[in-house]
Amino acid sequence: MAERFQSLNSKSLHAPLTAVQQEQIQQLSNKRLERMPVQYVLGEWDFQDLTLKMKPPVFIPRPETEDLVSLVVEEESQKHEKNSGLCFPVPVPHPVILEIGCGSGAIALSLLCKLPQSQVIAIDKEEAAVDLTRENAQRLQLQERIHILHHDVSYSSAKQLLVWGPIDFIVSNPPYVFHEDMASLDAEILCYEDLDALDGGDDGMRVIKTILALAPSLLKDSGSVFLEVDPRHPNMVENWLQAHPNLLLILRAIHKDFCGKPRFLHIQKQSR
User: What is the pTM of this model?
Assistant: First the structure.
């Protein structure tokens, strides 16, 4: 959006608006006055270096989620650095990434751009989200490297998701809002966005627990799960993992968002 504004020449900026343009602005303004999120009003929004199409009620990617993408990219880069430092470097396979709850495709498509050798499986239980991810992938010409599934993740999902073999990274910005907090969300969210993409149940961990229980059957040894969570979740997740040692998952790192809140978890599968 910023690039488009900067591309306008001075003549365009000073030219009086036509009647059609004034009517268009009035229509957009009316939508915003009705508390429609600006991303839906404009019909597109920037995430990382991509401009993505936005449609209600598909979940709108938040700015802090860009850091989730960066953490996955950084972890993959470190794997390559460790390998190149060996006396006899071994070929590193192209990373296979699973995104659970793809929404508009923001995370999945950003990872495909940042990691040109990667392949991504993107799933969402909402058909509108699957369709929008597919549309954005085609607009960005990334459709050959992404497998998009209309699927509600469950404990029995492993067979459907191993289309390219074991997974290197599972990444998700799952529904993590505590159910009791849902009513206090902004009107823009409550009136327009898919609330199932936000409501994480009584403890905010309904989908998080499913992802973690499923992860060992999907991940390669030493594979990783990267999650965006509520700031109250890191201790809760660590306690849950300790109560389920058979999963062989350890909480490796907690990362803060740009407001200094613990927001991202890096969980790793231990080798047997």
Answer: 0.91
- Distant-in-sequence, close-in-space partners of 95: CB < 8 Å, separation ≥ 6: 76, 115, 117, 118, 119, 168, 169
- Please count the other Cβ atoms lying within 10 Å of the Cβ belonging to residue 25: 11
**CA-based R_g, the chain, Å:** 20
Distance CA 77, CA 79 (A): 5
Cα-based torsion angle of the residue sequence 183, 184, 190, 191 in order, rounded to the nearest 10 degrees: 100
| pLDDT single digits (tens) 233-257 | 999 999 999 999 999 999 999 999 9
Output the CA–CA distances (angstroms, integers) from residue 76 to 89, 97, 143, 169, 271, in the order listed.
16, 11, 22, 9, 18
CB atoms < 10 A from the CB of 121, how many?
24
